[in-house]
Specification:
788 residues; alpha+beta; seven-stranded mixed sheet; 25 strands; 19% strand
Length: 788
């Protein structure tokens, strides 16, 4: 019997080749898209989960609380880890990561700046599970180094580096081991690990948040109990040290699970983060793609039901049971699903590299558990997809069918409902894609309040001798006619940290934390930031370095001043918490607000201090896009150090990587959903034209024009698309309105977005339907009337 069912299924699929092709291709394309999104979501959700004890590892973050400010830092003080390890038995191990800002490594005569170099405790390999390739994972001895395989091959080639020395920042380190390259889905990215070097500690080290601290607990269940102990630790051991220094600040330490760090929000955590919101959106899109493909199958199968109801009725008359008929049709559905799965696997081999290249998203190979789970889901989807048409066909009443009475009305209603659902999903995604594209363009094109074009940012090595030469470099570049301006600073877009100030509102004084940056006299002019009042810093006025401060408009409003009243105002700083060692700072200028951070957040109050020593970056505004002049001046002044630079606009746009990825993904997958929907619509139109062949022939004989016949066949489908547009518009508006709330600066959703999405949907549907309609209308009526 099974063999007979299989033979009938194959014959039926081959007989209706067009519908079979549409079903198989639609399902295969839907599976590929769904699988790619699933891999991406899985990749994001499993960040750092490859460590054996990942669920028991936590990062300790520092939170500073003042009267009306609450700032969380990913960093902590260097003495925190050892103190926790000594105080609490719950803490099995601790490990500290301290970044080496610029690590210059010598390879022969060449000098190379290597990124992601950290000093770490020797306990790192007791906490984290990093596969070892050669040597031993040990940092017990002074001046030891452990490299990743990529870095080892870069500096030592095929020769084994274990036991050899590597010169970093003019200091030699002995390589003790080589690790396997880190997986793409980790937030703890490093290339070189160096032995931790303890610095002399002082009472103020509680504020020296310079390293990342991780703790390994006995198990995940003890985390909540340890959080309470950590709060007690802050109260008994940390806060007394802060009060002894005269600060009115509350400091708290909190735990962040290692597996949640990819989505955690904390200051000075520079690793690109993920977004749970986008994961939810992409998961919904994946479900929609698979749903639309399944709807195609159900719709076409139900549409063909009239041709198979006689078959079902005869089978029933000769004794077939309903469960046998259901089994046959489910078998056909699973056969189509199996063919689609095989085709989707073939397509995946070619599509995955293209997907990674277009989106910039690495997609790791799935584990067996994910593969088996995916196949199980596809099996369930296949059963559910085939169940509806199977039940529909098997419920045919032999007496009515054999008398020529069919349930065309119910078939038509169900078919129309599924078409509306398909295009509702399509229109929602088209509107969503248009809004995301608009918002992304707005983020990248909105005036940030400064001119970021043609500004080159040059990184300065940590060597003190090199930094002292930067003034000479600045003077050399300033004499070049191809260079407009040069500035020395600590950060490219002025945001160095937060400083405490005393704010007085309505006669009540409070201590609060405010963002600050240290700049030189050329910075504001180079970036063309406008002054609202007052003047710029001046090297001729010696008091500017100790007493002067420039503020932005937001700071003036926050303090309750007017811009013209701000000049000469005194900003008071709590004892020992001053950036420039002055308790009273005099406002000499007010600049217009500018976006020194992402447009996700509103512009905060900002203090600008005058500093020309120890720059970390050199900003150069070029007249043409000519980096050669800067590179030449650098090589002449510091020939032994590599030249590393990037344009400021590129760095600024990197803040919106998530939005750019979302735009790319939504654009491609929206197009896929529309394509799959059109495949289904194409099949339905072909089926309708086939069913009405004789009617079309009669109409043409009676004088009907081609246009009237095309209109006859198209209008019913276009009505369904219009209904879908009406349903989809409020759903899309609500969803995108909610998404835009995550931005402090955002677009307004314009009416034309819905109009354009509707026109696109109608136009695409009309093109799809018209192809079959015109083909049917141009058919010779003699051939049509002989169709029986």
């Amino acid at each position: 019997m099974l063999r007979n069912y299989l033979k009938i299924a194959c014959r039926n699929l081959w007989k209706h080749k067009t519908f079979t092709f549409i079903n198989v291709v639609g399902l295969a394309v839907g599976m590929v898209a769904c699988w790619l999104i699933t891999l991406y979501v899985w990749n994001e959700l499993t960040f750092d989960s490859f460590h054996e004890r990942a669920t028991s590892i936590f990062r300790v973050v520092t939170r500073f609380k003042m009267t009306s400010s609450d700032d969380g830092l990913a960093l902590s003080s260097a003495d925190l880890g050892p103190r926790l390890r000594q105080t609490y038995p719950d803490v099995l191990e601790t490990v500290r990561f301290k970044s080496v800002p610029v690590a210059t490594i010598q390879k022969g005569e060449a000098l190379i700046n290597e990124g992601d170099v950290y000093q770490v405790d020797k306990s790192i390999f007791k906490v984290f599970s990093y596969p070892l390739l050669s040597g031993e994972a040990a940092l017990d001895k002074p001046n030891s180094a452990v490299l990743t395989r990529q870095v080892a091959e870069k500096y030592f080639g095929a020769a084994g580096p274990v036991g050899k020395r590597l010169q970093i920042n003019n200091q030699f380190y002995t390589v003790t081991g080589v690790l396997q390259d880190l997986p793409a889905n980790t937030d703890l990215k490093f290339s070189v690990l160096l032995t931790w070097q303890d610095a002399p500690s002082t009472a103020e080290d509680v504020f020296d948040t310079s390293c990342f601290t991780y703790v390994l607990l006995a198990d995940q269940a003890r985390a909540e109990a340890f959080r309470r102990k950590l709060a007690q630790f802050d109260y008994t051991q940390v806060m007394p040290r802060i009060k002894a220094l005269g600060y009115d600040i509350k400091l708290e330490h909190q735990l962040q699970p290692l597996t949640d760090l990819h989505f955690a929000d904390a200051l000075y955590d520079d690793t690109p983060k993920g977004s749970r919101t986008y994961l939810v959106i992409f998961s919904i899109v994946a479900a929609f793609i698979l749903l639309v493909a399944c709807i195609n199958y159900m719709n076409l199968y139900v549409a063909q039901s009239a041709n198979r109801q006689k078959e079902v009725s005869i089978r029933k008359v000769v004794g077939a049971r309903k469960w046998q008929l259901v089994g046959q049709f489910l078998g056909e559905a699973l056969l189509v699903m199996s063919i689609s799965v095989v085709l989707s696997l073939v397509l995946m081999l070619g599509v995955q590299p293209i997907f990674e290249q277009l989106t910039g998203i690495p997609v790791s190979q799935p584990q067996w558990s994910l593969v088996s789970g995916g196949l199980a889901v596809l099996g369930i989807v296949g059963l559910l997809t085939g169940l509806y048409p199977a039940l529909f066909l098997s419920s045919a009443q032999p007496v009515r069918v054999l008398k020529g009475q069919s349930s065309a009305g119910s078939r038509q209603w169900s078919r129309q409902s599924l078409v509306v659902l398909q295009f509702t999903i399509s229109v929602v995604l088209i509107i969503g894609t248009l809004v995301v594209r608009q918002q992304t363009h707005y983020l990248r094109s909105k005036d940030p309040g400064f001119n970021r074009e043609q500004v080159l940012v040059v990184s300065v090595p940590a060597e003190e001798l090199v930094r002292k030469k930067m003034r000479v470099l600045k003077a050399t570049l300033a004499r070049n006619s191809r260079i407009e301006a040069v500035s020395l600073g600590l950060s490219p877009i002025a945001q160095d940290g937060k400083a405490g100030i005393i704010r007085e509102v309505a006669g009540q004084k409070t201590e609060q934390m405010v963002l600050f940056a240290r700049i030189d006299e050329a910075y504001l002019n180079l970036l063309q930031i406008k002054f609202q009042a007052g003047r710029n810093f001046s090297p001729a006025i010696t008091s500017d370095k100790e007493e002067a401060v420039i503020v932005n408009e937001s700071f003036v409003k926050w303090m309750g001043w007017r811009a013209d009243q701000a000049i000469g105002q005194t900003i008071k700083t709590p004892a020992g918490n001053s950036v420039n060692n002055s308790l009273n700072q005099r406002v000499i200028g007010v600049v217009s607000d500018y976006h020194f951070a992402s447009l996700h957040n509103r512009i905060e109050p900002l203090l600008l201090y005058y500093q020309t020593d120890n720059p970390l970056h050199v900003l150069v505004r070029l007249k043409p896009s000519d980096v050669a002049a800067v590179r030449s001046a650098w090589a002449a002044l510091v020939p032994n150090y590599p030249f590393e630079a990037a344009f400021l606009d590129t760095t600024f746009d990197q803040q919106y990587q998530l939005e750019q990825k979302a735009e790319t993904l939504l654009s491609w997958f929206s197009a896929l959903i529309v394509l799959i929907s059109c495949l289904g619509l194409f099949g339905l139109t072909a089926f309708t034209a086939e069913q009405r062949t004789k009617e079309i022939g009669v109409r043409k004989v009676l004088g009907a024009s081609v246009g009237s016949i095309v209109t006859l066949l198209s209008k019913d489908f276009l009505k369904l698309v219009l209904i879908a547009i009406v349903i989809a518009s409020p759903i899309a508006w609500y969803a995108m309105h909610r998404w835009l709330q995550s931005f402090a600066y955002k677009i307004d959703i314009a009416w034309w977005v819905f109009a354009l999405a509707g026109l696109l949907a109608v136009g695409i549907a009309l093109l799809t339907v018209s192809f079959q309609s015109v083909k049917a209308a141009l058919m010779n009526p003699v051939t049509s009337l002989r169709s029986e």
